[in-house]
Amino acid sequence: MSGASHVWYCNGQPLPAGGLDRGLQFGDGLFETIAVRSGRALRLTRHLDRLEWGCERLGLPRPERRVLERELTSLASGHDEAVLKLIVTAGKAGRGYARASAPELTRYSACLPWPTGLPEQLSVTTCKLRLSEQPALAGVKHCNRLEQILARREVDSRSCDEGLLLDRDGRVVEGVSSNIFIVRAGQLITPELRGAGVAGIIRGLVLERAPALDIASKVSEIRPEDILEADEVFMCNSVMGIRPVVSLDVDGQQKQWEPGKLTCQLQRILEQEN
Amino acid sequence: MSGASHVWYCNGQPLPAGGLDRGLQFGDGLFETIAVRSGRALRLTRHLDRLEWGCERLGLPRPERRVLERELTSLASGHDEAVLKLIVTAGKAGRGYARASAPELTRYSACLPWPTGLPEQLSVTTCKLRLSEQPALAGVKHCNRLEQILARREVDSRSCDEGLLLDRDGRVVEGVSSNIFIVRAGQLITPELRGAGVAGIIRGLVLERAPALDIASKVSEIRPEDILEADEVFMCNSVMGIRPVVSLDVDGQQKQWEPGKLTCQLQRILEQEN
User: Fold this and answer.
1) Which of A6, B93, B234, B255 is 20 to 30 Å from the Cα of B26, by its Cα?
2) What GO terms in the biological process aspect are recorded for it (chains A, B) (predicted)?
3) To the nearest 10°, the Cα dihedral for A259, A260, A264, A265?
């Protein structure tokens, strides 16, 4: 009897030697989704900063920043409106959970078409799926996204634009692919991300810009009832920027808003920076 | 300015068209690790049953069982001792969390060498990382495994064989890549897997075989202190089968055992079935 080989097959076809990507085996990687306008990758520095921080959190080596910058800049070039996606994984390996002592990162990148039909205003449903609490991964834009995939199925089944995700204690965390802010008495509030959630680039920017705009802001616990009592609600991510939430169903209640003044102001300011 | 394409690059090299595997993007898939002895994939039916159940839990279509059976049987053939790994993912797609309405599964398979240096007896450390609670994914052998990867790093840093994983409430769930049983007053006890953990094939077999062997067994909550008071402790998975735990550090205490009578009996019975 012969010994086993290391050949992997994809749908029956042999793959190049050297193991199978740990991204594919375990979601052992990180990603960034970057808006492109007029041939330029927006907020590239912030995206790469977050990626580096994520690598550190996951115990992965630091990616070669200049290589990433060069590649993403080149991919973006010539595109009026597009979305760059970058994935960095722990690279090819055998089958176990243990990484090699010095894993060689693999990067995947693409410049994809700008999504059609991005809604100007968001109708949001509260997902039944509750986010699990994992401080070791909270904030990180990692590639373990089954929760978001299951939550997205709920959103689609209810024909809404976005889903609101709570944690197991009923605290508001984020949207399925966005962060959330509420405005109450002129103050911006967004949830802490200690146990779950992604530390979004636009979320960070809003918090950073607020003082100069003379807008009070805080990061704190938010409950669904706080949203129902909010004057304005918006959600944000790097592709859609800031979008007002105009309807939300939560706890069997349906609440509606007009796009708020602060929301529109922040939206305008961020778009001018693009 | 031109529109963006759908071309993905891996380390700068263009990949075949058609999107990037959702396994790679999000860990949107499932896997099985199957022992091979004398050219035969052991307990293949059980593995494929679990895979089908996992697909259902994740909302994925049912894989073509005959194709999988044929491929795995053929891969195993001629190998004295080996490990089959099968991964089934939600297939190639664009970048969003939403799946296509009828995703085409992609399968990855390999017949890999039998691991060298599998310890006969396990020295186990309790991981600091606590498993998060996600009933929607509990029991499923899915490809979102960053928790196990981080936990495995702890185990390696302490030069142990395996790590014990607790949930956020301090309940025992499983090992990093195994399930756990304790024996107390002749009774087998293994943790519930309602909030976390993988429903292991050997775990299922042990619970199923116990009555015919006149061994009492139950699935219930286990705390670290229950392990410290146990007469025997063993861990199990499809590759190593059943292995006695001979040392465990938990809560700053170090406990040692000799391989127990029941553990050795079950180990022998399972090996005879191979």
Assistant:
1) A6
2) 4-aminobenzoate biosynthetic process; folic acid biosynthetic process
3) 180
Q: Cα angle vertex B56, ends B53, B57, to 5°? A: 90
Please give the distance of CA B29 from its chain centroid, rounded to a whole number. 14
Residues A167 and A251 in one domain: yes
> Which pLDDT belongs to residue B4?
64
Residue A130 CA to residue A165 CA, distance in Å, equals 6
Q: Using one digit for the tens of pLDDT, what is the confidence trace for B51-86?
A: 999 999 999 999 999 999 999 999 999 999 999 999
Give the domain-ending residue among B57, B78, B113.
B113
Q: Do A3 and B79 touch (CB under 8 A)?
A: yes
Q: How far apart are CA A17 and CA B69, in angstroms?
A: 24
**Is the CB of residue B102 less than 8 Å away from at least one CB of chain A?**
no
User: How many structural domains comprise chain A?
Assistant: 2
Q: In this complex, do A9 and B133 lie within 8 Å of one another by their Cβ atoms?
A: no
Helix or strand holding residue B183 (H, E): strand B179-184
**Residue A170 belongs to domain spanning:** 122-273
Q: CA–CA separation, B149 vs B147, rounded Å?
A: 5
How close, in Å, is residue A21 to chain B by CA atoms? 8
Residues B157-186 have pLDDT tens digits of 999 999 999 999 999 999 999 999 999 999
